[in-house]
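Re: [ENG-882] Designed sequences occasionally contain unexpected residues at chain ends

Forwarding the minimal case from QA. Structure tokens:
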């Protein structure tokens, strides 16, 4: 049994049922079978049906690819964290050994969701391959800057990823329709806590407050480090949902001007400036510094930073779902999103058909079962590939993670999935981030009221939607 009162098997069973309903998993056999269908994309020499996760791991396919396509170079922008890069580099080494004809030029340390890609794309100098969040790359796809993978890969390819993750990279709008990326993980935030200060995580916000008051008075450290006023609404979306709100309502119209937004903002303002249990003037970097130096008990973050926290705290690190909001009885429900690999359109990158073929092979490989399992083993990212996901679940059920306390930590991370919310994968979501950032910052700087902030957020989104025709 764990701290939630559930056995490991029960938690995994719940998580599997919530994240994905899989009728059956077909065993993957890495044998390249030449396609009997010779349909190829314009300028391609490899049939469309031969681009599958199974084939790209096959030495016979690799040999055929190299003999037909020849030497080719692709440019890649890498957005992984330090621990994720250990997995990526392992996968990259094996990829280049299998495909000596594909030279991969990697730019490391690129930030996710920046304007750099758009600027490069407008100049025709975007990287051929880019790793991005599903929502940001959806914006790029809607702008015509990414390849429509539905036109290059068979539908069966997208079925080899968790449905939630695959759908995160699917857009259906008048201007863009299809899959635009292949996912490499499922991600969301959880509550990380330091067992030096908190032995059992709070299940409700009332428990959170009482526990934090005790932590502050006993240990004289900040209980929570969460900079609401400095973020862009990604983590706050969970609390907004916990207070009964949703970002979009009918017809995908924003619904930020609500009592839920007001109450959620005031809740965190009170924890920060009223009860003094949340550290003020925080940003993600400062939050991490406080947590890794044992100067705060709780932080809200995703499994992508697990390696950093575990290195600092070791088995004193705990993870659990966000608490139930006592005022509403609803769970704080984080956005269930994904990151993954996308390919720039030829107009954005100047790629030749053969470079696009190599790019397809690359992203299929990097989201295939072995590469995804590398991400799990090195960084404990939750795999998006079905086969890798099932292997990760099997390891967790058997308590095979080392050191053994990692099993308990990952239980808490997996348990959060049953309380998540679907990521709004629509172009208008791009306006939520600056809307929240502008008005939440003003509210926490005492420049406006919570009511005015909620109204301003929604008005900003509506104005941006009207200007873009959406």
């Amino acid at each position: 049994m764990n701290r939630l009162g559930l056995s490991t098997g029960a938690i995994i069973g719940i998580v599997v049922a919530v994240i994905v309903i899989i009728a059956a998993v077909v065993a993957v056999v890495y044998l390249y079978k030449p396609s009997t269908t010779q349909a190829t994309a314009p300028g391609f020499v490899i049939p469309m049906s031969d681009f599958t996760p199974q084939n790209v791991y096959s030495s016979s396919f690799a040999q055929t690819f190299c003999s037909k396509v020849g030497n080719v170079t692709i440019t890649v922008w890498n957005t992984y964290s330090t621990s994720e890069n250990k997995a990526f580099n392992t996968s990259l080494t094996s990829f280049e050994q299998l495909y000596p004809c594909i030279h991969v030029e990697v730019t490391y340390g690129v930030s996710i969701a920046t304007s750099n890609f758009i600027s490069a794309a407008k100049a025709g100098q975007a990287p051929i391959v880019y790793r991005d969040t599903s929502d940001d790359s959806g914006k790029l796809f809607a702008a015509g800057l990414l390849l429509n993978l539905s036109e290059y890969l068979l539908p069966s390819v997208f079925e080899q990823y968790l449905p939630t993750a695959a759908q995160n990279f699917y857009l259906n709008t008048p201007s863009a329709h299809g899959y635009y990326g292949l996912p490499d993980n499922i991600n969301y935030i959880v509550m990380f806590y330091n067992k030096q200060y908190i032995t059992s995580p709070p299940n409700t916000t009332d428990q959170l407050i009482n526990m934090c008051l005790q932590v502050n008075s006993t240990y004289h450290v900040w209980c929570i480090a969460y900079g609401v006023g400095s973020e862009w609404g990604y983590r706050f979306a969970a609390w907004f949902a916990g207070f009964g709100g949703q970002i979009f309502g009918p017809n995908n119209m924003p619904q930020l001007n609500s009592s839920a937004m007001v109450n959620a903002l005031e809740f965190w303002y009170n924890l920060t400036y009223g009860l003094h249990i949340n550290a003020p003037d925080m940003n993600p970097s400062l939050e991490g510094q406080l947590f890794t130096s044992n100067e705060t008990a709780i932080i809200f973050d995703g499994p992508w930073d697990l390696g950093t926290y575990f290195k600092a705290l070791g088995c004193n690190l705990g993870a659990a779902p966000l608490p139930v909001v006592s005022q509403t009885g609803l769970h704080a429900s984080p956005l269930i999103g994904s990151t993954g690999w996308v390919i720039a359109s030829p107009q954005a990158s100047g790629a030749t058909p053969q470079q696009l073929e190599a790019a397809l092979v690359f992203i299929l490989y990097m989201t295939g079962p072995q590469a995804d399992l590398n991400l799990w083993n090195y960084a404990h990212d939750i795999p998006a590939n079905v086969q890798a996901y099932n292997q990760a679940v099997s390891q967790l059920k058997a308590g095979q993670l080392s050191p053994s306390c990692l099993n308990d930590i990952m239980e808490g991370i997996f348990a959060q999935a049953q309380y998540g919310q679907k990521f709004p994968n629509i172009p208008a979501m791009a306006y939520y981030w600056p809307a929240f950032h502008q008005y939440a910052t003003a509210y926490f700087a005492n420049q406006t009221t919570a009511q005015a902030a909620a109204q301003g957020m929604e008005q900003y989104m509506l104005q941006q939607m009207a200007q873009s025709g959406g």
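QA comment: On inspection the terminal residues look reasonable. The domain at 190-333+427-468 is CATH 3.40.190.10 (D-Maltodextrin-Binding Protein; domain 2). Proposing we downgrade this to a documentation issue.
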